[in-house]
Amino acid sequence: MMSKHDTTSEMTRALHDIGAGGGGGAQDVSGPLLPASRFLESVVSALKAIRANKMRSLLTSLGIMIGVMNVVGMVGLISGVNRSVADLFSSMGTNSFVVTKMPAGNFNYTEYLEYMRRPDFTHRDAEAIAEQCPAVVAVSPQAIVVKKIKHGSRSTKEIGVLGVTPEYQYVSDADVGDGRFFAWPESDRKRQVVVLGHPVAEHLFGERDPIGQNVLVGNRRFRVVGVMSPMGEMFGQSLDEYVIIPYSTVGKLYGARLMTRLSVKARSGEEVDAALEQVETTLRIRRGLKPAQRSNFEIITQSQLTEMYENLTRITWIVMIGVSAIALIVGGVGIMNIMMVSVTERTREIGIRKAVGAQSRDVLTQFLVEAAVLSGLGGIFGLLAAVGLTKAVASATPIPASIELWSIILALGVSISVGVFFGFYPASKAAKLDPIESLRYE
Amino acid sequence: MLIQLEGVTKVYEVGTEKVNALGGVSLSIEKNEYLAIMGPSGSGKSTLMNVIGCLDTPTSGSYRLKGQEVGDLDDDELAEIRSAEIGFVFQTFNLLPRMTAFQNVELPLIYSKAHRRTRAERVWGVMDAVGLRDRAMHRPSELSGGQRQRVAIARALINNPSIILADEPTGNLDSGTGEEIMQVFEGLHRAGNTIILVTHEEYIAEHANRIIRLHDGLISSDERGVRGSSLGGPVGSAERV
Ligand SMILES: Nc1ncnc2c1ncn2[C@@H]1O[C@H](COP(=O)(O)OP(=O)(O)OP(=O)(O)O)[C@@H](O)[C@H]1O
Ligand SMILES: [Mg+2]
């Protein structure tokens, strides 16, 4: 320990060294700090203030955490679902569209009856389109009936039996995994041949080779010529639970009026629009429609299907946004509340800061940054929770849910904005405090 | 003239009642004066200090600091003056409890926008000046009262202010520690600083070379040259320098 005397002389010397002497003003102050490093400092001091009240801060940021988890988790989930739907649509065949009696989307019973009264498509319609539309490369009429498929003692539940022409392969891009698709002669002669969906073959035959075996479609005997490659699943629902038989055979066995649609494939992506127009014109002429008359058929493109799907998911989005907004508002009010408490508790600190030269905007910034950091931490926790949630969903269900970069930006952006918004009132209250009264505050 | 007050009044309104904390104070203080303000409790000492320190503005009258009329300034300009010209030392130290001594001393530099690189050097400089280099990384709760007050003095010094204002700086200290703090002020005065300090104790006031007595918000006496001959240097070592 230094003696009192030594201390004094040491001090005096030091004072001369630093040039104290009431020069007035801090002349050796260099230019203003870089805003970035100044900002970083306030973030660090905000983190310190938050750390001083760990439990309180954690509870406060819980609301934000739940809100952000909800936003990010749901966004991940929905974009996962969207992706699998997009996959499905593109597996329907590139550059292809369908011509049907009924439009895609919702309609009521009266409309349904009206659509049902529309003329059916005939084989001749399909031939006309193939011949008269230069932008069309393939047409496949399709008819669907629902039957049980049986082999020996094994049977499936009722599944779709799709009647198509061999062109279906080109129109739909569907691949035959095993054996072959049926050929034109078989189709023309209305042969009872069938191509099985992958799980159907597995269910009926197990390990055994189904090719050349007989199955019952309903109560008619069909010979298996091929098995389709699996397309996969969506929402735990297999996309492969169907069988394919020749279109003409459907007509022979179940009546020709069953044809419900035509699948059409355009020559290329650029020619899809031309194909749509040509198909419409061809059908209108064949049906003798006058220019003023509405078409009595519908053309459904993949983009229409996508749009329809998006309309459906939009409702989910709206609900999700509503729930998230409520969680974030509740979280934000929590932050506002805790910041009010903090401002009151730290009135004296504010007084001290002002006494040593802090301006109102310095205090404002300090508390705004603190609110933003508090809320941002909630956002980070929410993001981590959402990552966990999506991982769990992705491993437990077939939905390819995932967190993308933009949802991280969204999480931080949303939570920080909420913090700044709800922190503004307490922060401006702090900024407006009178220095003397604050210093006197007990 | 560093400080010039003319007919400064401060009126507080509490409900319908008006309290005349300062009733018309005229006072001039020059550079490197060492002034003690004395007076009974409630006589307006702290109020006067707050006005001089630009924490508060007069209700009427004129206060010029380095020729600048303080009454004309807005809150942010007052904050700038506090940052550049004023160093406060309080009776209750008023350190931020969660920060180390070093960080407390550094605080005014953040608001005076001193460059980060020069900050540490300056903090160490004033820490040396108050003899607390080895306690720099301690928090206030880990320091004695006297050490805390030295930290507060270092903080007051950091921006190299024109005036150091101390409101009962020894009020919360025992007489021995109080005497040590007074020696720090002694050194500061010797180094050329202007010091204004409020005290209740005659023996503390005797360190100053001018004593002003307040009574009900008015100056009742103004003695100059108290010190010098009658008291001499309180400590031999100080004279060695
Ligand atoms: N914010 C305020 N509102 C109302 N009255 C006030 C306020 N601040 C001070 N006063 C009054 O002004 C007068 C002077 O107060 P001041 O604090 O300047 O006295 P002081 O001389 O410092 O007293 P002490 O020695 O007890 O610290 C007192 O009567 C006090 O009650
Ligand atoms: Mg007082």
Q: Summarize this, please?
A:
Chain A is an alpha+beta fold and 442 residues long. Chain A has helices spanning 4-18, 35-51, 54-91, 109-116, 123-132, 168-172, 184-188, 198-205, 247-254, 272-286, 302-345, 347-355, 360-396, 405-432, 435-440; strands spanning 96-100, 136-151, 154-164, 176-179, 193-196, 214-217, 220-228, 233-234, 237-238, 242-246, 259-266, 298-300.
Instruction: Tell me the name of the CATH homologous superfamily of one domain in chain B.
Output: P-loop containing nucleotide triphosphate hydrolases
The unique ligands bound to this protein are: adenosine-5'-triphosphate, magnesium ion
- State the end-to-end CA separation of chain A: 35 Å
Beta-strand residue fraction of chain B: 25-35%
Given the C-alpha coordinates, what overall shape of chain B results?
globular
Helix content of chain A: 55-70%
Account of the 3D structure:
The complex is a heterodimer of chains A (442) and B (241). Chain A has 15 helices and twelve strands. Chain A is α+β, with helices and mostly antiparallel strands and 442 residues long. In chain A, helix 3 packs antiparallel against helix 14 (405-432). The longest helix of chain A is centred in the last third of the chain and has 44 residues, at 302-345. Chain B has a domain at 31-45 and 83-228: 3-Layer(aba) Sandwich (Rossmann fold), CATH 3.40.50.300. Chain B has helices at 45-52, 75-85, 101-111, 116-129, 145-157, 175-190, 202-205, 236-240; strands at residues 3-14, 17-29, 34-38, 60-65, 68-69, 86-89, 163-167, 194-198, 210-215, 218-224. In chain B, a hairpin with a 2-residue loop joins strand 9 (210-215) and strand 10. The longest helix of chain B has 16 residues, at 175-190. The chains are: A alpha+beta (442), B alpha/beta (241). The interface between A and B is large, with 53 and 63 residues. The structure holds adenosine-5'-triphosphate (ATP) and magnesium ion (MG).
